[in-house]
Design brief:
Elements lengths: L14 H5 L12 H26 L3 H10 L8 H21 L11 H25 L7 H31 L5 E6 L3 H12 L5 E9 L14 E2 L1 H10 L4 E4 L5 H14 L2 E4 L14 E3 L2 E7 L5 H21 L1 H14 L5 E7 L5 E7 L34 H8 L7 H7 L3 E3 L6 H5 L14 E3 L1 H5 L6 H13 L3 H17 L4
Parallel strand pairs: 1-2, 1-4, 2-3, 4-5, 10-11
Antiparallel strand pairs: 5-7, 6-7, 8-9
Helix pairs in contact: 2-4, 2-6, 4-5, 5-6, 10-13
């Protein structure tokens, strides 16, 4: 197979390299998530109308489809007219829901408010539909079908949003899907916002504290004991703490805000301004709310939300298929591991994932039971440079373990980690905590994405002992990521496994 990564830039990017790029205009938050919600609403309306019609006409799905195609589903009424009413109801529901901000669910921090708005949108759209039916004098359309459709739509949308909201809150409690923020400014306003974010976990924000900028305007409310930061130090701290978004309070003057905005574009960090003392910043930008605090989005990094959503769906589907197909092999390996040596079947170790989140990574056990405690005794045999550790003839590895490692079969349980949301099928290798502690600041960029079972480094330079090559491969993957690149890496991984080049 041709090496498809040869055209990729594998040089490790630095902050200076990014700073040399031309500044880009601020972009608004992509509407992929909103479009998905609109599509789901449209499918809900269609499904509800089909179920209501089949129930009211006592028809089977096959019989209903045949009558629909022949125009006899509802006697005396053209199917095209019925579809026009249905499309009109669907469009009006979507427009009303958009107006009520139901397609930006993270901004609605109350379950009861979201349910109220959802019912309100359905009620207004229902009034428009019934008025249209009255104006065109469509008495031959059974009111029973209309009523059941409206009830099903209202209930379905409310239940779906409730399930999504509860799942979202659960993920926030587990630290998944949260947005890490750093507050610029240390006055009473900043301290109040910090306490509010810490107390209100349902917002999905994790506050990493607040900092003062050395050239910010003086304020009588500023905490004089706070450490002063330069703008460069601010973004270094943002990188160190995996900050997704900066929140600028009114303690910063206009010049400082502009300087931070320019750097936010370079470092691809989201930026919002809290207009406590509004000074004309972001005149053309909409005002959003972080709980009870108004905020103006000045810059958004423009993450490919839709593509990342597709990647997650592929991870789930492919992992389920893999676990089902390899279930006999999975069971056979588990039995063999248990019979060969004493100890558990699986080896579970703490790994550092996306944004520094620690999780338990699963593998089939390939070493003796007390392998971790014996590591210090063989550190002098390490064959890798930098922070990596690898020994070809590691005495701790069992005979079965060597076979499993050769064909990468020991990593099959990581499909369970993928289903849990800790890992992806393709991504940088998940490091252990001791490796991350020795990272330089620029190396932390590889933790911006979900770690993977396989990746560019695993299929191209797995035997290369250079830590710089290891890091540059991960940076090349992050810089050039696409769904097609993931599929190519997965395809090549199969060849690598069959060739037995693992160790």
């Amino acid at each position: 197979m041709e090496f498809f990564w040869q055209g990729l830039d594998t040089s490790a990017p630095t902050f200076q390299h990014l700073a040399d790029r031309s500044p880009v205009k601020p972009v608004r938050r992509p509407g992929y998530e909103s479009k998905l919600w609109m599509i789901f609403d449209g499918l809900t309306v269609l499904g509800s109308s089909v179920m209501a019609t089949l129930y009211a006409t006592h028809s089977t799905p096959f019989d209903g489809a045949r009558k629909f195609l022949h125009g006899t589903l509802i006697y005396g009424r053209s199917m095209w007219i019925l579809m026009a009413f249905l499309c009109g109801f669907c469009i009006s529901l979507i427009l009303i829901s958009q107006r009520l901000q139901l397609y930006t669910p993270r901004r609605l921090n109350s379950i009861f408010r979201e349910q109220k708005l959802s019912i309100e949108a359905c009620f207004i759209a229902s009034l428009l539909l019934t008025n249209a039916l009255y104006l065109v004098k469509a008495e031959d359309i059974p009111r029973r079908i209309v009523l059941i459709t409206l009830v099903l739509v209202t209930v379905s949308l409310s239940v779906r949003r409730l399930i999504y909201r509860l799942r979202l809150y659960r993920n926030f409690e587990r630290g998944m899907g949260t947005c890490s923020v750093l507050i610029v400014g240390a006055g009473l306003e900043a301290q109040a916002l910090h306490r509010y974010l810490q107390k209100t976990s349902r917002l999905g924000y994790t506050s990493k504290g607040f900092v003062n900028i050395s050239d910010a305007s003086s304020s009588e409310n500023r905490d004089s004991d706070s450490e002063m930061f330069t703008i460069e130090a601010l973004f270094n701290r943002a990188r160190k703490h995996f900050v997704d978004e900066l929140l600028i309070t009114s303690a910063c003057d206009r010049k400082t805000v502009q300087a931070i905005l320019e750097q936010a574009r370079i470092h691809r960090v989201n930026l919002r301004y809290l207009p406590y003392l509004y000074d004309g910043q972001g005149l053309d930008d909409p005002i959003e709310y972080i709980g009870q605090f108004p905020a103006i989005p000045l810059h958004c990094g423009g993450l490919p939300v839709f593509s990342l959503g597709v990647k997650r769906v592929l991870d789930i589907v492919l992992s389920l298929l893999a676990l089902l197909l390899i279930a006999p092999v999975f069971l056979a390996i588990a039995i063999a591991v248990k019979l060969e040596s004493e100890g558990p079947v699986f080896y579970s170790s703490e790994r550092v994932g996306k944004k520094g989140r620690v999780f338990r990574c699963l593998k089939f056990r390939t070493m003796v039971r007390d392998a971790d405690s014996l590591r210090a005794a063989i550190m002098h045999m390490n064959e890798r440079d930098g922070v990596l550790f690898k020994v070809s003839n590691d005495p701790r590895i069992t005979r079965l373990g060597r076979f499993l490692r050769k064909y990468s079969l020991d990593e099959l349980p990581q499909f369970i980690n993928v289903l849990r949301g800790d890992m992806s099928i393709v991504g940088p290798r998940p490091p252990i905590a001791s490796e991350v502690q020795n990272y330089q600041l620029s190396h932390l960029r590889r933790l911006d994405v979900m770690p993977g079972i396989t990746g560019l480094w695993q299929v191209q330079a797995r035997q290369n002992p250079s830590f710089d090559t290891y890091i540059s491969m991960d940076f090349a993957y992050i810089e050039n990521w696409s769904l097609m690149l993931d599929l190519k890496i997965i395809a090549h991984t199969v060849g690598v496994m069959l060739s037995g080049t693992g160790s």
